[in-house]
Amino acid sequence: MTLFEFIKSNLSILDVISEYVQIKPAGTYLKGPCPFHSEKEASFTVSPDKQIYYCFGCHAGGDLIAFIAKIENLTQIEAAKLLVEKYNLDVPEEIKNSGFKDFKKSAEEKELWFRVNEAISNWSHENLLKTDAALNYLKERDIDLKTAKHFNIGYFPGGTRFVNSFLKIMAQQKSIMLKDLFQVGFLQQGNNIVYSPFEERILFPIKDQLGRCVGFGGRIFRPSDERAKYYNSRDSDWFSKGKLLFGLDLAKKEMQKRGSAYLVEGYTDCVAMVQHGYKNVVATLGTACAVDHLKKLSRYISELFILYDGDDAGQKAILRLTQLCWEVSLDLKVIKLPDSEDPASFLKKNGKMDVFADKAQDIFSFFVESMGNDFSNKSLSEKLKLSEKIVEIISKVNNYFKRDLLLQQAGYVTNLPFDSLKSLMKSYLAKKKSGFQSEYNSHKVTKNSERESDKDGEKDLFAAFDGVSALEEKIFSAIINSIGKSDYFWVNDDLVPYFSVKIQKLLNKLDSFIKNCGSNNCFSEFLDSLDECDKKWILHVSLKFEQNVSKNYFEQLILSYRRLYWKQILQNIKIDISKAKQNKDGEKLKTLFERYSKIKKDIQARGLI
After folding, report:
1. CA 30 from chain center: how many Å?
2. Residue 407 sits in which domain range?
């Protein structure tokens, strides 16, 4: 057994994918919005029985390892390792040692990283609870002890004495050495001393979506401290500010339940929101919200409320999101707080923000109003530049009706005629198309790579199957979906030669594979034996039609196909009979007469002749 086979036999694709995609039952399958391309329809399909997924929009498909590899941008072996670590699979030694010699080492390194950070987090939290100055700061920020414990907020004291005490406890109680603390970046070597860049800071443990502590965000709190307000753990293989979201591990269940989330700018805003009853809240780590953040959120929700500070910086950060939101399947809405207020300060004064949430504005509408503000007082060149910017953003909206509504809204705000903005958009789109065509020609971009999700792209992808009829697809789908079941379907040998050449090859390959397959995962192993084109087509047809069809239904399909070729079948048998007579092959002649008689009776019984 290979590592891949071990993982697939010990994990359910449903459990793996539901961590990333909101999928709901649809007959024998589960469906949801595809995480790999922007869409409103649920074209992403999962078959728990077959342990496969396939998107009828962008044609992404495969098993659970292929899914993790694609969504996490990993190689197949990296995806396999991630699944082993994530689900704590006990991989047999013989698998680890057969071509995966570095497997154990890398897993141990990652586990050590999590263990060291978790130990730091717990030690710092204990220090917070016995340090009045730190507790008073939290009280000033209206953060109570229950919330501090919920997030495991900590405090790391300054000075050599505390560092030495910390090192002693880590070594004696946790078997964590100085080199381990250097490795995660929590301690550093100075001039003849060891110190921590997190000393005298309130610590906010940063965890991944699985709840494993990967680093920290530290905030100064003493009035005399003139250092940078925030300090984050350095980026590493397991800590990336551009991908992590504070509070996601605690919020994801509530997010999935509600189908929505709040996105705030900082740790304290997130903590304050949770304390006031808003449990579906996450925060970026002192960085601008990136596409990776939005893609990660889209795995859990369909609607995101942006709740940034009311100052200019916060509003500009929201405007930047309009450049990104069209790349993900998320409805972004903006909650506008009063000027100079942030979520934490607003909640401290008012307790709730439901009124503002109810008035949340579509991000494109927010963009149009913000960009068009004070438009009449701009210079001519500024007006032209702003108009082009507004049109550029609105052009990214896929819904044509919504485009026109936004153009009308832009016209109202800027006092420009709708027809003028419409004309400007047409010019922009024509220019963009011209530039695209030029790039297309100069780089000889393939038609499929540019139109992957449309019908032409689908034809290009399955060009090798152009001669395959819809009836053949249904028959092959029924056969492939019956693998491993007591009622396994098959096509009579006399009918196989009348299928498309491509289907004949697949049927012969499948027949040989099934006869030699000694495991319960024949479907999965058969897929793995195919080239990428054949694999994608089989994924496509296996989920295109109903998965559990009756034997009677399959026989009706075969009858329909036989009806098309019965004359040709009988004529060819007659030719074979004539040859057998000439060769005086009595055994073959007997077999051919029996087959001819059986087929003719079958055809007569069904009223074909």
Report:
1. 16
2. 380-443
Q: With residue 289 as reference, give the H or E element that holds it.
A: none
CB 40 within 8 A of CB 53: no
Q: Give tens-digit pLDDT for 413-422.
A: 888 999 998 9
If we measure between CA atoms, which residue out of 206, 212, 203, 284 comes closest to residue 243? 284
**Residue 600 DSSP SS3:** helix
The DSSP secondary structure of 61-124, one letter per residue, reads: EE-HHHHHHHHTT--HHHHHHHHHHHTT----HHHHTTT-TTHHHHHHHHHHHHHHHHHHHHHH
Instruction: Please indicate, yes or no, whether residues 74 and 146 belong to a single structural domain of this protein.
Output: no
Does the residue 458 lie in any domain?
Answer: no
Instruction: Report yes or no on 450 lying in a domain.
Output: no
Contact 170, 112 (CB under 8 A): no
Share of the chain above pLDDT 90, in %: 31
Percent of the chain with pLDDT over 70: 90
* 251 domain residue, yes or no: yes
Same domain, 471 and 492: yes
Same domain, 345 and 404: no
Q: Tokens in use for 245?
A: 């979201």
* CA-CA-CA-CA torsion sign (301, 305, 306, 308): negative
Residue 276 tokens read as 């006031």
Quick one: average pLDDT of 167-192? Answer: 93
Provide the CA 479 distance to its chain's centre, in angstroms: 30
Task: Tell me how many degrees the CA angle 61-65-70 measures, rounded to the nearest 5.
Answer: 60
Is residue 200 predicted with pLDDT exceeding 90? yes
Q: Answer yes or no: do 86 and 111 share one domain.
A: no
- Let me know if residue 114 belongs to a domain: yes
How does pLDDT run across 286-326, given as a tens digit for each residue?
A: 778 888 898 888 888 889 999 987 677 777 788 788 777 76
Domain count across the chain: 5
197 and 95, same structural domain?
no
Q: Where are the beta strands (DSSP E) in 213-255?
A: 213-220, 230-232
